[in-house]
Structure formats: structure tokens, C-alpha cells
Amino acid sequence: xxxxxxxxxxxxxxxxxxxxxxxxxxxxxxxxxxxxxxxxxxxxxxxxxxxxxxxxxxxxxxxxxxxxxxxxxxxxxxxxxxxxxxxxxxxxxxxxxxxxxxxxxxxxxxxxxxxxxxxxxxxxxxxxxxxxxxxxxxxxxxxxxxxxxxxxxxxxxxxxxxxxxxxxxxxxxxxxxxxxxxxxxxxxxxxxxxxxxxxxxxxxxxxxxxxxxxxxxxxxxxxxxxxxxxxxxxxxxxxxxxxxxxxxxxxxxxxxxxxxxxxxxxxxxxxxxxxxxxxxxxxxxxxxxxxxxxxx
Length: 296
Known about the structure:
With 296 residues, the protein is of the alpha+beta class. 56% of the residues lie in helices and 15% in strands.
């Protein structure tokens, strides 16, 4: 009888190990696929727009030293009060194909100090997309938006919708992906215990844990998909012109509906020639010159 139980235990252990190895391999392949755009470079820095914190640039692309030098020069110029020079340095990094929340955060701060609120708000939004849980980004974005001339009342949303939005900002798209993998692992392990455990109490615990983890997994996947979709979407933009007329039709002779000012965030519904159809926070729609805006 003891020999029989030992064989069952060994069988259970082998099965569990096989599942865990499969999960690990699948998770590695998933994250390798998510990085398939070829740009593995990432600027890692935790600097505040008011200070010159230590920075580090890590990447697998060519000439990392040049990017590091541009980053450090931008920080030095910012600290010296040369905000236009800092903008030029940070912009050079962005134009080289690099991006990160700290980079957009510092770039936004330099733009704001240089008196270009539209560009500042645009880059704060970009930083927030990459790091939605960053309180500094959220605070500075709100502060920059407080100077916008347009005071538009947003269309009221249900309390449930606001709650879902807040939860979705807890983690980034990659963060939700990692959490989904962890929950998937818990589901599989719990399912193994439920299916193969000899004691009834262990089977019951495995079943409960598997069900709860599966529900949380579905939620994490949904939030992750939503975050990834928002990260890649191009349906939001910021007005960069000091004043832009919104018309009823995509033509110069179209009826003037209202005027938007620098820094206002809008939703882009479509494009026609040199015009973009937009919607503002209160639900009003119209056409604006594409050159007057820049997509987030």
C-alpha cells in the first residue's frame, strides 16, 4: 500500500513539474513576442522635473553612449535653466526611436518651463500611457491642464465606469500581463491539486483557489487588453495651436462652431484631407485642421 502511494505521489510531482515548465516556457515566449518591434532600448531613470536625479540608459541597440550623453546633457541644461536646450536633447532621444515614461516626463517638464503648455500636456499624456500609476505624472498633468483656457465639462459617466477606470490605471499594460501569467500559474497548479490530490480537503481547496484565480485572471486579461489598446491607439490628440477654429464641415468656408486653445485634449474620429473630425469632452463634434493638433 505504501509503495502504491509513493508511485502516485511521484506521478503527481512529475505532472506538476511538467505543467510548471510548460507555463514558464509559454510566458517567456509571450513576452518575447510583445517586444517583437525590435526596439528593446529603454531609458531607466527616476528623475523629477524639479531635480537632476541619477540616470541610467540601458539598451541593446547601437551607440548607447550617445543616448546616455543626450540624456545627461538634457538634465544638466534643465538644471541650468536652459529649458529649450533640454527640450532639444530629450527630443533627439525620442526622434532616435527611444521612449519611456521618465523620458516623456522630463520632456514635458522642459516644455512647460519653456512656456509651451500644449507640448507639455502632450508629453505628460504619453508618459501616463506608459506608466499610468505614476502619481507625479498625474499631478503635473493636472497642474499643466489647469492653465488651459478651455474649461470643458465632461459628459458624466456612471460610478461603475469611473471605478473601472481607476482600477485600470493601477498597472501598466505589461504589469497586467505579468499579473495574468501569475494568476494563470495559480489556476493550473490549483487544478492539478484538485485533480490529483488524494485528500478531499486538498481537492476542495484546490477547486476554490482555481475558481477564484480564474475569475481574477479574466479581469486581469481584460484590463491588460484595454491598457494595451489605449497604449497603441491614435484616437486622442492635443491642440498645439494657440487658437484653432472648429468648423461644421472640412472646408475653409465651413461654419465656425467654436474655438479650441492650446493644450485641450480631444478625440480624433477620422480624417479627410487636411482636416480631422474631432470630439471634445462635452460631446460636441466638428472639424479642425490636422496641422493644429498632434496625436498622443
